[in-house]
Write a structure and sequence with these properties.
Blueprint lengths: L1 H17 L3 H19 L3 H11 L7 H14 L6 H19 L1 H11 L5 H18 L1 H22 L5 H8 L13 H5 L3 H8 L1 H7 L11 H9 L1
Helix pairs in contact: 5-8, 6-8, 7-8, 7-9, 8-9, 11-12
């Protein structure tokens, strides 16, 4: 346990020195994609539009490319995700409300009291996080954190020496397998022809068709993998 703790501290310090803030990383990746589009991007739609308005010999200049990129990002690209983003927000809010409900909170407390030591406390936290993740990723996200907090309080009261970084990691293990559960976005969207068309495009969606839950979430492969986790 001490060796694992020292390794964890070393990894945390190393990544803390070199890993940027998530917002900085998002901005940097956006600028990288913008630069790549200018240098090696292909502009068939913009070229066709300019050919109709200014003649076939006109090629997109930097200003036209920048305008098309901004329109693709903020005009037509970003706002296509509003319905999906609202679905995720609703799932997170409802998952939080469910995890904070008194019966669920009592169940979380009861689950933590099953532990007989710090190792079993970590194992129980991971088990319930994964079980909740197969039901809903938002429930696992919030419920796992609440279980970890209750586990830390129980460990303090009983005088156990608990490695809290490992406990926190166990609380979020449900996020490893949630997409194989009932809230997996891709398996659910694959059951609807309209959603498949929005994701894959009309031509590819017509060739692939829809995929039932029996062939995805409830397939033997997914059940074995999710059960193994």
């Amino acid at each position: 346990m001490r060796l694992l703790a020292r390794m964890g501290i070393g990894f945390r310090r190393g990544f803390g020195r070199v890993t940027p803030d998530p917002f900085v990383l998002a901005v940097a990746l956006s600028l990288l994609v913008l630069l790549a589009a200018f240098v090696i991007g292909d502009w068939p739609a913009l070229t066709a539009q300019l050919a109709q308005t200014h003649g076939p010999q006109v090629r997109p200049d930097a200003a036209a490319k920048l305008g098309a990129l901004l329109d693709g990002w903020a005009g037509t690209g970003l706002w296509k995700l509003l319905s999906f983003a609202m679905q995720m927000v609703i799932m997170l809010v409802l998952g939080t409300a469910l995890a904070e409900a008194p019966p669920v909170r009592r169940g979380i407390t009861a689950a933590a009291t099953l532990a007989r030591g710090p190792r079993s406390l970590v194992a129980i936290t991971a088990f319930f996080s994964i079980a909740l993740g197969l039901l809903s990723w938002s429930l696992s996200l919030i419920g796992g954190a609440l279980l970890a907090r209750e586990a830390g309080r129980l460990s303090r009261d009983r005088g156990w020496r608990l490695h809290y970084p490992i406990l926190c990691a166990a609380a979020y293990t449900g996020l490893m397998c949630w997409h194989g559960g009932l809230s997996g976005t891709a398996p659910l969207k694959a059951t609807n022809a309209k959603d498949m068309g929005e994701v894959l495009g009309a031509e590819l969606a017509a060739a692939v068709g829809t995929i039932s839950l029996d062939d995805s979430l409830f397939s033997p492969l997914n059940l074995v993998v999710s059960g193994g986790l």
